[in-house]
Amino acid sequence: MVLLYVVLIVLIAAVLWLIGAYNGLVQSKLRVTNGWSQIDVQLKRRHDLIPNLVETAKGYMKFERETLENVIKARTQATQATSVRDKEGAENILTGALRSLFAVAEKYPDLKASQNMLALQEELTSTENKIAFARQYYNDEVTRYNTTVKSFPTNTVASAFGFVPAEFFELKDLSEKEPPKVNFA
Predict the structure, then answer these.
(1) Alpha carbon distances (Å) from 63 to 57, 95, 155
(2) 3 lies in some domain
């Protein structure tokens, strides 16, 4: 009879641990999803600023059509990307296109002094900072989640219920870890 109670207690403890491990994985996965949605919000904000930036620059930069077209093309690719890997690549391309735009804009003193351009510069700089913070939060949550998914004994629960490691949102080019330099003052 005592053996039956011991087996029953061990079984109940195992079931409670399984429930706790599963719920912990679900919570961790939801934090990763939330982190990604925070990045998405900031990327959308960035994407929404770009048409205004291009329109402002277009009036001054009549001979820089290719630069403006590259920014619009990069923005389109970035808004259409769906996976973490695709967004990562598209955002890297967009950052490069914006850098080119700002480098070319340096040649236009009237554009540099435009109040609209200065306001857009401030908004873009603020948005770039928010994107960096959102990326950091997301990658921190991915680290916690992946650690749980890959660590014993929760890895057995994770594999049994289909939890797979999440992808980090990383920049490949080290120079792109800095926000675009914009200085119209």
Answers:
(1) 11, 21, 58
(2) no
- pTM recorded for the entire structure: 0.76
The residue whose two tokens read 């401030």 is 122
**Domain span at 112:** 22-177
pLDDT digits (tens, 9 = 90+) for 106-149: 787 777 777 888 888 889 889 989 999 999 999 999 999 999 99
Residue 42 CA: distances (Å) to CA of 48, 86, 100, 129, 182: 10, 16, 21, 9, 18
Any idea what the CATH number is for the domain that residue 55 is in?
Answer: 1.20.1440.20
The three-state (H, E, C) secondary structure of 73-130, written as one string: HHHHHHHHCCCHHHHHHHHHHHHHHHHHHHHHHCCCHHHHHCHHHHHHHHHHHHHHHH
Structure tokens at 180: 């675009």
- Name the one residue in this structure whose structure tokens are 């990307």: 81
Tokens at 36, concatenated: 């990604």
